[in-house]
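Q: Could you predict the 3D structure of F-box domain-containing protein?
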Amino acid sequence: MATTIDIIGEDLLHNIVSRLPATSFAYAACVSRSWNLVCERVLSRPKLVSACSFNPNFDDAVIEVVNKVLSQPIRPHFAIVSIGGSYEPDDDSDDEFEVLEEALDLITAALGSKVQVITNRPSGIIGRDAFSDEIKEIKLGFGEENDSILLIVGFVPGLKVTTIPLAKPFEGPETVMIDEFITDIREFSTSVSGCNSPAAIIMF
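A: Sure. Here are the predicted structure tokens for F-box domain-containing protein:
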């Protein structure tokens, strides 16, 4: 009995699945072993996808960037969320960290609990608008309409990622705190790769 690849050819199937959004791509990889091999070819190299939204509504902005990054084949390993502007928590409090936590919850729910998500508040954002597809720049504190969210999703085959907080309660010299931070990094690297030097470190 002829398989799908026998009928349409591997190159054509590769062309089709490479145009699928992330969710459909994941389903395609589960169709059969041959389909899975084709999907593995599509995502055989590291890949970064990003999207930016300037929607003043926080929830809508998150939906826009998530939909944009998931509109193409990718298996998210980590995500970096940069939030600029005057977004406020749903409870109208003044705690900007609650906005970061809210973004963390929304992105984690969309990408999955196994995806490491980093949230941060930059002084400015530049990126391609998920809605208009135009390049825009926002500087925090300049102008009234400066709400923005930038989402970067990364796929790196074989990479093990985790988040290690530096800002934690600690009583003692700052140098000791940094030493413990470095020790935490080395211990994680050793636990997943057998080498105490990580391939890369992203710090905020």
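Q: Anything worth pointing out?
A: The first helix runs from residue 4 to 8.
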